[in-house]
């Protein structure tokens, strides 16, 4: 009974995909913050020139 339980890996894939999705989410949030700073300065420069 316990051997069958420990050999069952059907839930492991779901956990791996969840962790992968979480890491991708963190990367997206980090890149958006950097992009926001770049866009702010670009739009400020364009506003000043107008």
Protein model, in words:
It contains two helices and no strands. The model has no long low-confidence stretch (mean pLDDT 85). With 50 residues, it is mostly helical. The chain starts with a helix and ends with a helix. It has helices at 2-7, 10-49.
Primary descriptors:
50 residues; mainly alpha; 92% helix
Low-confidence stretches: none
**In one word, what is the shape?**
rod-shaped
Total number of helical segments?
Answer: 2
Strand content: under 5%
Order of helices and strands: HH
Helix coverage percent = over 70%
Distance between the amino and carboxyl termini: 75 Å
What's the gist of this structure?
This protein is mainly α and 50 residues long. It contains two helices and no strands.
What order do the helices and strands come in, and which of them pair?
Elements: H1 2-7, H2 10-49
């Amino acid at each position: 009974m316990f051997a069958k339980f420990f050999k069952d890996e059907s839930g492991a894939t779901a956990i791996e995909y969840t962790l992968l999705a979480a890491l991708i989410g963190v990367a997206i949030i980090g890149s958006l913050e950097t992009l926001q700073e770049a866009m702010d300065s670009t739009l400020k420069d364009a506003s000043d020139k107008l």
